[in-house]
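USER: Note each token:
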Amino acid sequence: MIIQTTPQLLTVDDFIMQYGERDRYELIDGELIDMEPTGLHEQVIAFLGRKLNVEIDRLNLPYIIPHRCLIRTSNDTAFRPNLIVLDQTQLIHEPFWQNQPVITSNTAIKLIAEVVSTNWQNDYARKVEDYAILSVSEYWIVDYLGIGGREYIGKAKPPTLTRCQLVDDIYEKRLFRLNDVLESFTFPELQLQAGAIFAAGQL
């Protein structure tokens, strides 16, 4: 007889205490989620961060891209975005920030980008829902391998960047393919071709 045990659910406080320094994990509904990063996945994140930091510097914006950050959406869910742009002037409103890199509201969030990996369902479904509830104004889903479901990126499943823009509490989505120039509401002067982002995920 096989006895199945239910995995112990964690609170966000427990998660931060046990896994707060371990970048590959996040917490969804009390369950520990391995984000399964690869080297190529990290290359795409690094490329995006570099391009956005250049734009931040060029425009002298009060924005930062922290290396480590958690978004606490409830007592049992904390996302660890691959890339987040924060307005540093608004971090004074975050109660944990001075002691922990934890964000609890949309006040300081300008942009979130998730680079898709094997657990793509979270990026396309759960996080779309939760980030909209949190009123995150702009959210990018960077699917450089085209592994998301066909209902999200089409039957041919090409590499796709999905820009989610919050309109009346619901995300309006626009898909950017290889030769498309990304349009960002947070960085309206950004000139970045989607194909360059996808190419960053190659050796």
